[in-house]
Design brief:
The complex is a heterodimer. In chain A, 10% of the residues lie in helices and 36% in strands. By secondary structure, chain A is mainly beta. Chain A starts with a strand and ends with a strand. Chain B has one domain: Aldolase class I (TIM Barrel, Alpha-Beta Barrel). In chain B, helix 4 runs parallel beside helix 5. Chain B is globular, with a radius of gyration of 20 Å. Chain B starts with a strand and ends in a 23-residue tail after the last helix. The model of chain B has no long low-confidence stretch (mean pLDDT 96). Classes of the chains: A mainly beta, B alpha/beta. At the A-B interface, strand 5 of A face strand 4 and helix 2 of B. Strand 5 of chain A pairs antiparallel with strand 4 of chain B.
């Protein structure tokens, strides 16, 4: 499956059905990132029920130090 | 007790600190603790998915500090609104330090886009604390659209140059009915004290704490600077004069001429 994540095209061979599964595959914890799927912000509660399709564009965002 | 009230919350500290540019998370946490601050700013960025870093939030005690996400990196209102919404989706309180800085050299806030974004975010229920040029007219507009504070800059971000906009900030303080937080450019505790002596309600500091070998000690120094300036403001500074006015009696000198 092809996904565009944070502006970069990525190919996944393992089956990824949901956003939660994607985060697991990327070794990211669900409470660490905010997810935008095709410009829609996903509430943390829907990550495990939101399906992914070939060609989807995701932004995975996290808090970093800032002033 | 002298409390800082912003929106529906009160704080005993008038020093807010940023979390950027520290040499380590331990140094950042030490600075936060020693500053006595109750509000800390954070930024939002893309995860480096090939090299994920551990979560900043795991180092910040959320029961002790109110997390104030900023919209740094936003070049216009639309980008700022998007960042604010993302921050809220993480489960934070809907507070946002609004920053719209299209100019990469001086990082000066765009007044028009800032006002536009503020209006949208207030309508969406955010508590909006806008970083802004030290412009009294803009401050009034931001207050009118419902911002919780105004945050005029003392000097460009990260410059450590102090309250260079002093006269304009004085006018903002004189006119504002919401807290005035002097943000950006404060490089020394004396700068923080100066802003507070002028009647600012709070200050925000980041670079000055991160850019020193001993952030904890500098945080303590800033805390004292803020407290000293606040007390002086509450006490009321004496008037300035052109000519000397003797502190000692002008009578009873040890001489016979009058």
């Amino acid at each position: 499956m092809e996904l565009k994540i944070n502006g970069t095209q990525k190919t996944f061979t393992d089956e990824i059905l949901t956003v939660t599964q994607l985060l697991e595959q990327l070794n990211l914890s669900v409470d660490q990132v905010v997810v935008e799927l095709n410009r829609d912000i996903l509430a943390p509660g829907v990550l495990s029920t939101t399906g992914l399709n070939n060609g989807d564009e995701l932004e995975l965002i996290q808090f970093v130090g800032g002033g | 007790m002298d409390l800082l009230k912003i929106a529906d919350r009160t704080f005993s500290s008038r020093l807010m600190v940023g979390t950027g540019k520290f040499s380590s998370n331990a140094a950042m946490v030490a600075a936060m603790e020693h500053s006595g601050s109750e509000i800390v700013t954070v930024a939002l960025r893309r995860v480096d998915i090939d090299n994920p870093q551990d979560s900043l939030l795991s180092h910040i005690d959320r029961s002790r500090y109110l997390l104030l996400p900023n919209t740094s990196g936003a070049r216009d209102a639309e980008e700022a609104v998007r960042l604010a919404r993302l921050a809220r989706a993480s489960g934070c309180d809907p507070w946002v330090k609004l920053e719209v800085t299209p100019d990469p050299y001086y990082l000066l806030p765009d007044p028009i886009e800032t006002l536009k974004a503020a209006e949208i975010l207030v309508k969406e229920g955010f508590v909006v604390l806008p970083y802004m040029p030290a412009d009294p007219v803009l401050a009034r507009h931001l207050e009118e659209v419902g911002c919780a504070t105004v945050m005029p800059l003392g000097a460009p971000i990260g410059t450590n140059r102090g309250v260079r906009t002093r006269d304009l900030i004085s006018i903002i303080i004189e006119q504002a009915n919401i807290p005035v937080v002097v943000d950006a450019g404060l490089g020394a505790p004396s700068h923080a004290a100066e802003a507070m002596e002028m009647g600012a309600d709070a200050v925000l500091v980041n670079t000055a704490l991160a850019d020193t070998p001993d952030p904890a000690a500098m945080a303590r120094a800033f805390r004292k600077g803020v407290e000293a300036g606040r007390e002086a403001w509450l006490a009321g500074l004496g008037p300035q004069r052109r000519q000397a006015e003797a502190s000692s009696p002008l009578t009873g000198f040890l001489r016979n001429d009058s």
